[in-house]
Amino acid sequence: MDYIAEGVLQALSLLLTGDEETWDAIFTTMKLSSLSIAVSLALGIPLGFLLGYAEFPGKRICRAVVDTLLALPTVVVGLLVYAFVSRRGPLGELGLLFTLPGVAIGQVILALPVVVAMTATAVESLDRRLSLTLLTLGAGRSQLALASLLESRYGVLLAAASAYGRIISEVGVSMMIGGNIKWHTRTITTAITLETGKGEFAMGVALGLVLLLVAFLVNGSASLLRRRVRT
Amino acid sequence: MTGDALYEVRNLKRAYGTQTVLDAEHLVIPERSVVGFVGPNGSGKSTLLRILAFLDTPSGGSLWFGGRTFWNGGDGDAEGRGSEMSLENARSEVTLLLQEPYLLKRSVFENVAYGLRVRGGLSGEEMRERVFGGLRTVGLDPERFASRAWYQLSGGEAQRVALASRLVLRPRALLLDEPTASVDVQSAARIKEAALRARDEWGTTLVVVSHDILWLNEVADEVVHFYGGKIIGVGPENLVSGPWGEEAGGMVLRRLTDGQILRAVRPPGGVSTEAVAAVDPGSLLLALSLPEGISARNALRCSVAQMLYENGTGRVLVKVAAGGLSLTARLTAEAVRELGLHPGQEVLTIVKATAFRWL
Fold it and tell me: pTM for this structure?
């Protein structure tokens, strides 16, 4: 049992002394997850808003497809993206395999359904009286849409928090597309997998602590947002 | 006080599928007037209010507003139909206060300012003045309330903020859908006061759907009665609902719970048991004892429940009750004085069997 306690102590010292290898994995994760969430939100919020706000033929089918994609397994996404970006694949010439942008593609595919579905739900569940109220105050069509998006902002933020949680904790895509290359594409989750396999607990625990902290922050803000959505 | 017609409605219909919920034959609402809509739930009054607010589209008939034609005769065809642009313009002159207020998830200030921002053209200082003025009109201290969040308000306060956000627009017509139905007494008083002030200060026309008949009779220039989607009369109306029974001699009768019987002439086609008849309050007579040689078929023993002054006619409306039936009679002030009427008093209510109008 001693090696666990020892591992935790070593982990703290790795974090506090600024161990380069440990901190590089943390910075890589932050860089990668920021890129992935930015693209997911930029694509997902407009799409989710359209899906929740507009009426068009095939809307129900779109909704069902998005809801199904929520359950995409990370390794399947990894496999899919790998097939496209590997040398032999249709996007092979772009050289995305074993790069952060390559991993980001996979993470966006994972996070996008979360953003779209939750944004659509937030917009759909707006009070029926909202549009009546805006109309009686003289709002036009575009003002109506803008105000509806603003009214659902807590729901949209909740979508962002949930999507970020999915991105930061996934390991399948990062491992398969990124390849866990030290100083390059090694992230918190892939590093933990590797170090644990090697029997090196210290670095795994250190990175695990950071990941837990991020997860708590994300979930904490999500539960605050959830309360605000209900008022 | 009142001027030209602000609204005119002719044969205005609204149907959902095969069910017609509104069939308003003719109604004129003069500018600067206060008009009340009353009637049971589902009688079409709120539907008409929404059409007047340009939130709903009639299925047929004509509507004029401020001298402009919005819908004309078209039975669902595009011709004679208001364009989206003209509807948006009209909506900037008319505003409706919903029965259940909805506040934007913003501060009280931003809620009241929203309509002004949509319209544009006000400086920050002017905006602040307008918003604060609006809050004061509904009895909310701007210093205390302007920066509050939407969830920090009681139901009555929320309704007052919603009203303030409409008052600051200085609308040409302010439509109120049961504005005081779900708020506390104090808020109700401030809402009524503020609405009337809009009429006095900016000449706003008020159309009020309300069950508060006392208030409407006091402030309204006209009270319009709705039943089954139709306008059945202007001014106070008595509605007598069934069950009706047939009687020999071309009569139908309605038994009251105290055993008394009300008789009405059977209409040519007969009546269903659940039919409803209207009786004009002017056709009811009140007496302390039964006059001799009277031809009227009905002389009901009633007690006076309520007396109120009728705005516009200068008459007194006397509400009498007997056996679960409540009727309103319109009397002159002299008649009330001569009879010495007071609430609780026993009187005979005399109604001719021909006074019933079947709806």
Answer: 0.78
Q: Does domain B5-233 have CATH number 1.10.3720.10?
A: no
User: Mutation test of the interface with chain B: which of A123, A132, A136, A151, choosing the one with the most B Cβ atoms within 10 A?
Assistant: A136
Q: Give the whole-angstrom CA distance, residue B299 versus residue B280.
A: 16
Q: Does A143 touch chain B (CB under 8 A)?
A: yes
What is the pairing mode between strands B5-16 and B19-30? antiparallel
Facing residue for A136 by CB, picked from B88, B95, B105: B95
The DSSP H or E segment spanning B173 is strand B173-177
Instruction: Sketch the domain layout of chain B as residue ranges.
Output: 5-233, 236-358
Q: Which of B106, B126, B128, B110 is nearest to B118 (CA)?
A: B110
Count of beta carbons in the 10 Å neighbourhood of residue B228: 16
Contact at 8 Å (CB) between A162 and A172? no
A 10 A CB-CB count for A121 gives 18
In the block, tokens 């056709």 appear at B283
Q: What residues contact A98, with CB distance under 8 A and at least 6 apart?
A: A177, A178, A179, A181, A184, A185
**Structure-token match 């599928």, residue found:** B17
Sign of the torsion formed by the C-alpha atoms of B173, B178, B184 and B185? positive
Burial class (CB in 10 A: 0-12, 13-18, 19+), B305: middle
CB A185 within 8 A of CB A103: yes
Q: Which domains does chain A have, with CATH numbers?
A: 2-230 (1.10.3720.10)
- Residue B81 tokens read as 């139909």
Chain B residue numbers touching A147 (CB-CB < 8 A):
104, 114
Residues of chain B found within 8 Å of residue A137, distances taken between Cβ atoms: 95, 114-115, 118, 165-166, 169
Q: What is the pLDDT along chain B (359 residues), one digit of tens a residue?
A: 445 889 999 999 999 888 999 999 999 999 999 999 998 888 999 999 999 999 998 998 999 998 888 888 755 444 455 566 688 888 889 999 998 889 999 999 999 999 999 998 899 999 999 999 999 999 999 999 999 999 999 999 999 999 999 999 999 999 999 998 888 889 999 999 999 999 999 999 999 998 887 788 778 888 898 988 999 888 777 888 878 888 888 888 888 888 888 888 888 877 777 788 888 888 898 998 888 877 778 889 999 988 888 777 788 889 898 888 888 899 998 989 998 888 888 999 999 988 888 87
- List chain B residues with CB under 8 Å of A125: none
Nearest CA in chain A to B91: A138
At the second CATH level, the architecture of B236-358 is Beta Barrel (2.40)
